[in-house]
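We were asked to recover a plausible sequence for a given structure. The inputs and outputs are reproduced exactly as logged, with field labels preserved.

PROBLEM: sequence recovery
POSITIONS: 386
GIVEN STRUCTURE:
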């Protein structure tokens, strides 16, 4: 019997965080919850703390700190509040693995701190690598920290690479479901509402990533994420639309052979693989049945109608702080779309405008990313009609 892994979950009340706790609940012999954090969902954080007995919890919204302390006063759990506590909690000696399930740019600082503290990372926060991939991967290398992908496509690539570390990758295909608007043209997209965009055909996810999936920005961000995770050139990364979401991604090797990883679309599988690596733990997840899927189909993406994909590819190719600009502008654009302030296609216009206007830096450092992010958000907000 191996020792149990002590897990810190950053963002435990979100979609990935709650599914990770489902996995941990089903694998009590393998995992212990060490730390839980939430941005502002105090009630769920309290319930999770009572159920999973973490060593410590962090509520980022400090206005709720007293309430969380009060509710947990009868339990042996340390309660902290604020951004700084979130950034520092990952340094705790007792943590073996940090699952970064925060949404967006907010994941960057705690992830860098965790790597600096020598903690292995289960990465569900793709924006961290999109914004500062070079910085994050070089620091991980220096600290001998492993980054295990949680994103289903990247988990698929990672699983296909098991036993192939010495064999160069020719290219990878990231599969995309195509989202709720697959096959639609610009004319249709110009009038879609958030209610339609939030209905993903296959995956049950948080609001931000669901909008990103509908606009194909998610796939663009995943291309950048893959570039850093697997040390690839942009020309080695391709996207193929696969509406059934059964093939989670594909690696093509230099002999022309292709390996794909398959399974039902259920985030618990990649989460468990990242937490348990290198083991595959026995699970009760539903199994794929060929009878329910008589055909698996593949088609080309349409970057003309879904311009976010072209914008992200351009940022991936050019590098520097351009992916950081795309990410920040996109976070503002998605928030504005969710508030009915801009239309679906205007999200791309807003992002492109920011890409054109914010100064390009070829070799940014951490402070440059912080500044680029702040400048881009400010500009994007100013560009939104009031
Ligand atoms: Mg994904």
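RECOVERED SEQUENCE:
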């Amino acid at each position: 019997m191996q020792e149990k892994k002590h897990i810190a979950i950053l963002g435990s009340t979100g979609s990935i965080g709650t599914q990770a706790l489902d996995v941990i609940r089903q694998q009590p012999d393998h995992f212990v919850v060490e730390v839980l954090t939430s941005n502002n969902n105090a009630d769920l954080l309290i319930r999770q703390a009572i159920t999973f007995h973490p060593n410590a919890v962090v509520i980022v919204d400090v206005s709720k700190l007293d309430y969380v302390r009060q509710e947990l006063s009868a339990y042996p759990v340390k309660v902290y509040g604020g951004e700084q506590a979130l950034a520092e909690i990952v340094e705790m000696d007792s943590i073996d693995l940090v699952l970064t399930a925060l949404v967006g740019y907010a994941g960057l600082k705690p992830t860098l701190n965790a790597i600096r503290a020598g903690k292995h990372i289960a990465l569900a926060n793709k924006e961290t690598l999109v914004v500062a991939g070079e910085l994050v991967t070089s620091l991980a290398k220096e600290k001998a920290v492993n980054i295990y992908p949680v994103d289903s496509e990247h988990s698929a690539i990672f699983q296909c690479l098991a036993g192939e570390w010495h064999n160069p990758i020719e290219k990878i295909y990231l599969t995309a479901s195509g989202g709720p608007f697959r096959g639609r043209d610009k004319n249709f997209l110009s009038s879609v509402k958030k209610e339609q965009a939030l209905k993903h055909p296959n995956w049950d996810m948080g609001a931000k990533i669901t909008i990103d999936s509908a606009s194909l920005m998610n796939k663009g961000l995943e291309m950048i994420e893959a570039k850093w995770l697997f040390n690839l050139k942009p020309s080695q990364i391709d996207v193929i639309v696969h509406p059934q979401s059964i093939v989670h991604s594909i690696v093509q090797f230099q002999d022309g052979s292709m390996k794909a990883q398959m399974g039902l679309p259920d985030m618990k599988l990649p989460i468990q693989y990242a937490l348990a690596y290198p083991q595959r733990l026995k699970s009760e997840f539903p199994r794929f049945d060929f009878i329910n899927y008589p055909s698996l189909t593949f088609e080309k993406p349409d970057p003309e109608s879904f311009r976010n994909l072209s914008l992200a590819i351009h940022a991936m190719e050019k590098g520097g702080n351009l992916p950081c600009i795309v990410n920040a502008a996109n976070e503002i654009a998605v928030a504005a779309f969710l508030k009915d302030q801009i239309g679906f296609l205007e999200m791309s216009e807003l992002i492109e405008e920011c890409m054109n206007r914010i100064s390009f830096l070829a070799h940014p450092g951490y402070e440059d990313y912080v500044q680029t992010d702040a400048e881009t958000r400010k500009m994007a907000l100013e560009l939104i009609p009031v």
